[in-house]
Amino acid sequence: MALLWIPLLSLIGSLVTSMLGHLSRNKLTAVALSMPIIALVLSANLATDVFDGQVVRYSLDWIPALGVELSFRFDGLALLFVFLILGIGCLILFYARYYLSQQDSMAKLYCYLLLFMTAMLGIVLSNNVVQLWVFWELTSVSSFLLISYWNHKSEARNGARMALAITGGGGLALLAGLLLIGNIVGSYNLDVILQNRELIQEHHLYEVVLVLVLLGAFTKSAQFPFHFWLPHAMAAPTPVSAYLHSATMVKAGIFLLARFYPALAGTELWFILVGLTGLITLLIGAYVALFKHDLKGLLAFSTISHLGLITLLLGLDTELATVAAVFHIVNHATFKASLFMATGIIDHETGTRDMRKLNGMWQFMPYTATLAMVAAAAMAGVPLLNGFLSKEMFFAETLHQQLLGSMSWLIPVLATIAGAFSVAYSARFIHDVFFNGQPIDLPKEPHEAPRYMRVPIEILVALCLLVGMFPNLIVDDILQVASSSVLGGNAPEFHVAIWHGFNLPLLMSALAVCGGLVIYTQRKYLFQFQASLPPVNAKYMFETFIYGLMDWSREKINAIENGSLQRYLLLMFLVVLLAAGWPLFEMHQLVGNKQPTEIDIHVGIGAALLMVGALGTVIWHRQRIVSLILISIVGLMVSVAFTRFSAPDLALTQLTVEVVTVVLLMLALFFLPQTTPKESSSLRVLRDLFIASSIGVVVGSICYALVTRPLSSISDFFVANAKTGGGGTNVVNVILVDFRGFDTLGEITVLGIAALGIFKLLINLPLFMPSCDGEGRPWAKERYPLLLATISQALLPLALLVSVYIFLRGHNLPGGGFIAGLVTAIAFILQYIAHGSKWISERFTANYRKIIASGIAIAMATGLGSWFFGRPFLTSWFDYFDLPLVGQIELASAMLFDLGVYITVVGATMMILASLGKLTTQAITKGKEA
Amino acid sequence: MELLYSSSVGLLVACGVFLILRARTFPVVLGLTMLSYAVNLMLFASGRLSLNQAVVLGTREAYADPLPQALVLTAIVIGFAMTAFVVILAIRARADLGNDHVNGIVPTPKPTKKGRKS
Predict the structure, then answer these.
(1) A676 CA to chain B: closest CA distance, Å?
(2) Which of A223, A270, A680, A759 is most buried, by CB atoms within 10 Å?
(3) Chain A: residue nearest B39 by CA?
(4) Whole-Å CA distances, B98 to A917, B92, B106
(5) How far apart are CA A309 and CA A288, in angstroms?
(6) What is the dihedral angle through the alpha carbons of A534, A539, A543, A545, rounded to the nearest 10 degrees?
(7) What average pLDDT does chain A have?
């Protein structure tokens, strides 16, 4: 349980600080610091178990049915990283208090930093790889937010975007890799994965998995060729650079390599890919760092180089190399974070980070200078400092590898060269900034930093010294547990010591220091040489690539989406034709073995009328009124067909819908032109005829194949249970309101949404005001014929009575909410037609939106009601009662549900037709005025 | 009977598709309506064709398949809602764009072919 609190506390801190922007800076800092400090205490408490060799686990069910759980795991490696993240995190939070100027929002920075801390803790503690990936992406996102903290600066925005593109892209590759691993092993649990090394490595997809996971790790840890985002991320405030881009986030990639070391490492491919990438990154970073004039640029490339060093160590096939890698993770974090913070102070107090201007700072800030010099010496690998120890181990391990076969001797040589460059840029950092004459043209008068701003650096530098001088006392235990969890078992025997006697690694160190000093003193020539090389602008290349990609995509999209609906529909129909037609050719026989039924005369006449109607609609489709009349014949015949083929409910529904549809289309024609111009060329008509008839043939054939085959249906269940379970004899209605009530609820909701959408579309409609019909005749003056008005008024109560009757009998005989609703709506619409909407609104004021909402609410409430009786949603209930005079009646909750359906259908239909109808009245009135 | 039924469905589909491929909104709406008739008939037919077997319990010996009927019933109502939505969209498009061409732009009309517009 305590384990869960470690990431949770920093998450809470993130939320809390985001809301406390009004507090004073000191109070806000205290709040922000309190969370990681408590987390640190908690993890120190858990650490005793880990030092005893246990792994602490905690898991919480999330979606048990899918095997998804929130699962944490605290082992040696996690312990090391948790201390690193929380410890350095606290120092950074404290430092940021003094770094930010009054204009910058402290709450925003703390919120993002703590969010990032949560994400990092999540990565190192996850026991489920998918969960790990989620936190992994969260670091990319929070890092994006942090880099773009000063979002008014374009370089901050660009740098943030680039970092997100690279690390986010790598994250996607990682996800693919993790999913593959999960697939191979059969579990996403890290414990299981780490125990199945053979299974993964012998799988034929191992190479793919490895490359994908490494892509994730290398992009995050800024390994060549993905290193270029890191220098651009330096647009972030310096505390962010110190925390994310030296101590933690870039180490997430390294962490990933170490985490999966037991499962993925050990093959030749691993050593080649990891080792060589590390080596190249080490060299490039060390070389380029020397030429950077910006202090943070120098540190960024130095970070790249050190990350390369750690990667290379993980790619060397010896156990001690892994120990050295773990050791260097800690050492690099301490000296690099303190160097970044010192840079922040220099920037803060002088207003620049340009080493060509910064000179002789020793005289202004001797105290900061001392701290920075010790840290830089650790970076260079000077004895008695922590950097020396791990670099010495690194040199020693380069001598014990076989990475390049017979050319393996190259690696120690190249390592020494990289070491020399590292000494050279460290020397430049010290000499150029603190000595080397007087400052040139500084924006500010330099002076020493505030007392407390130096405290975090003091702590880290003290650690550099202590580890460097008493390594056995401080780091042995933690290195032991961390490296044993990387190696998946027991760590080798090792002793970190300052003095191993005169040996080859010591000679390499000495050569590196001397070489580095020589390079630094002769740097003038190197700078001249470097200036003569053609410039490589990674940012420019990256942006060219991105813009090229965008242009390419746009071109392709424009080619497909040209805005022509006709073309989209044509393409869709062609796809339908192919997809539906193809399987027909693979079928042996179209006709099935069901006994065919005889054609009788009624069906024959009906079908003939239907065909005539359909063909007529097509032939006269440019005469809109004519085609409307013809298509209504088709609709009528469809409802006759439903009657004939034993579906009375459908027939009633189709009939009523037909009426409202025709009314709707008549209204629509008022606003649309009365005729269709002849536009399609004959060729196009021919093409469309061909496509249409092909699809018709295909669909007709499928339909024929379907109806001539015997039926096996699940409907027997409904027929058997309608009366006993649903209390109704009309099975279709019982299915609608009971068995599949949830479907119906969804459908009336869709109906309501469509009606609301129409309502919205009709608001502020710029009206066309036709003053005459298509033939040029003006509208009749007598708009509401007396005969119709009189009859319709008399019909209204009758029609309502019929609809109530249809509604009530629906559960047992054809009818129900849908049909009754439509009948009611038609009765009302008739009133509108006969009297006009003004006449109606004087007598009947109803808000159709509220009607729709109440209908859906009733249906919903009926469903929810069953919860009160401890039953699942939409469980129905019914019983029989004896009433005096009436006799036995049945009451069912399904009826209430059907009432909801009824009300929604009335509301939606009325809303659609009445709002459109009202517009025609307005248009005619306006037209007359005009 | 099955053959006649299927060919009617096929014809409706063909007419519907042809109308949907027209250039003005009203024929397209008609085409959609026609196509939804065809689709409803076809879905209905998945319960097979049966005469005099309405699914009202206690009235018949054998019953037609009620499930496709229930599905088609809601499909009819929703089909109406969608038709209505498309119709209103067409009206709105005409009002906003000034023409009733489905692409929103009348393709450079040749003077001789220009139809009467209100």
Answers:
(1) 7
(2) A223
(3) A699
(4) 21, 10, 10
(5) 15
(6) 60
(7) 88
Position A596 scores a pLDDT of 83
Angstrom distances, CA of residue A374 to CA of A336, B36, B45: 11, 81, 86
Q: Do B54 and A647 touch (CB under 8 A)?
A: yes
Summarised one tens digit per residue, pLDDT across range A35-47 is 999 999 999 999 9
Between CA A339 and CA A344, with CA A342 as vertex, the angle to 5 degrees is 110
Using a cut of 0.80, tell me whether the model's pTM lies above it.
no
Would you say B81 and B87 are in contact if contact means Cβ atoms under 8 Å apart? no
Instruction: Give the distance, in angstroms, between the CA of residue A317 and the centroid of all CA atoms in the same chain.
Output: 38
- Cα(A180)–Cα(A157) distance, integer angstroms: 34
Cβ contact, residue pair B80, A767, below 8 Å: no
Report whether pLDDT(A501) > 80.
Answer: no
Helix, strand, coil % (nearest 5) of chain A? 75, 5, 25
For A359, the token pair is 């000179």
A485-508 average pLDDT score: 80
Dihedral angle, C-alpha A600, A604, A610, A615, nearest 10 ° = 160
What's the domain range around B73?
A: 2-50+63-97
The 10s digit of each residue's pLDDT in A849-876 is 999 999 999 999 988 888 888 787 878 7
pLDDT bracket for residue B114 (50, 70, 90): very low
E strand or H helix at A60, and its extent? Answer: strand A56-63
**Cα–Cα dist A705/A588, whole Å:** 11
* Domain assignment of residue B79, yes or no: yes
B95 CB within 8 Å of a chain A CB: yes
In a domain, B42, yes or no: yes
Reported ipTM: the value is 0.91
Per CB-CB distance under 8 Å, the chain A contacts of B103 are 563-566
Which pLDDT score is estimated for A344? 92
Three-state secondary structure of A822-837: HHHHHHHHHHHHHHCH
Secondary structure of chain B: what % helix, strand, coil (to 5)? 65, 5, 35
3-class secondary-structure state, position A730: strand
Q: What is the distance between the alpha carbons of residues A672 and A661, in angstroms, rounded to a whole number?
A: 16
Residue A835 identity? H
Q: Looking up tokens 């680039």, which residue turns up?
A: A162
List of chain B residues whose C-beta atoms are within 8 Å of the C-beta of residue A634: 12, 34, 37
* Total number of domains constituting chain B: 1
Specify if B116 maps to a domain. Answer: no
| Rounded-to-integer distance, Cα A332 and Cα A324, Å | 12
Confidence of residue B118 (pLDDT cuts 50, 70, 90): very low
Q: CB of B108 within 8 A of CB of A777?
A: no
- Nearest to B14, CA basis, from B29, B28, B34: B34
Q: What is the DSSP letter of B65?
A: -
Task: Find the CB nearest B113 among A678, A692, A765.
Answer: A678
Residues of B in contact with A661 (CB under 8 A): 33, 80, 83
A767/B54 touch (CB, cutoff 8 Å), yes or no: no
Q: Which residue has the tokens 């080596």?
A: A279
B48 touches chain A (CB under 8 A): yes
Q: Could you tell me if residue B89 is inside a domain?
A: yes
